[in-house]
Amino acid sequence: MSGSVKSWCVFDVAGKEKEIERLEKESAAPDFWNDQSSAQAHMRRLSSLQDEVATWRNLSDRVTDALDLLDLAESEEDESITSELLAEVEEIEPKLERLEFQLRLSGKHDRDDALLSIHAGAGGTESQDWAQMLLRMYLRWAEASGYQTELLDSTAGEEAGLKSVTALMRGVWAYGYLKPERGVHRLVRLSPFDAAHRRHTSFALVEVMPDIEDDIEINVNPDDLRIDVYRSSGAGGQHVQKNATAVRITHEPTGIVVQCQNERSQAQNREVAMRILRGRLYELERQKREEEQAQLKGEHIEAGWGNQIRSYVLHPYKMVKDHRTDHEVGNAEAVLDGRLDDFIEAYLSQSVGKEE
Length: 356
Known about the structure:
Oligomer: single chain
Shape: globular
Helix content: 40-55%
Number of helices: 9
Largest sheet: 8 strands, mixed
Order of helices and strands: HHHHEHEEHEEEEEHEEEHH
CATH class of the largest domain: Alpha Beta
Radius of gyration: 24 Å
Structural class: alpha+beta
CATH topology of the largest domain: Alpha-Beta Plaits
């Protein structure tokens, strides 16, 4: 618990409490709710700060009580007190480590919900099946991490798997934790679709974007959009839409195309597609800034399928290795079942101090 004082200073509880006081005063103004959108954003920020400060205050109180208990145990030489202290420390340490780790998530949108898209690479059914395996992996991770998930759009493969899929991961820090996952993921395995059971290599691209519902940074000119509507594809029979409710939006200046067909109405599909578009425009701007900074530093950036961030090998041996951090594990099945935290934390630990 020696790092708790340092973490307390980094988190700046006193500064956060001053901001809470300011926000509370502003929210009491008579005209506060005249601008509903601004007021709601204001209240979300206030609620978030109140929760964070309460968490740190509670942990600080528990650490203080534990130290008092330590003094009592040393003076009384009472084994029952020592056992109670050890139990308390075992509870406090992982909570403190988690909170200390969250201090590394300093990006503007790190606390936001995340939009996660997976696109199968070249290779037909093999890569489409790999895209579906990745979706399952992230859904399992989200469930274990306490995040809610919602599939926003998906396109099935011809024989199996998925050509592409977009899911919403809803919860605090979702974007901050998932952003290390963006990039190309490579799978090596004996193919279940090959009659000769040969080894195949498959690729899939993972995109992670913050769910930006209304952000002044992302201004989308309606004149730049081409919006097409069409009938949603379904499983056939009664599930096929008779009306054109699916929406495809093309952002002509960038060529970005997004679509949504999973909602019941055209208006709902359009709203979701616009959220995905804003997220992708944000990511595009982030990448541009990152490339500009890299050029100034003299770094070489290469984009493409050969530049995978992680390899999942199921044959001839089992291993998952992240090529950016060199973190690797032998239990590939556990990783594919959603055990991703070690990879995420290794990447974020290495990236401390880098701007998003």
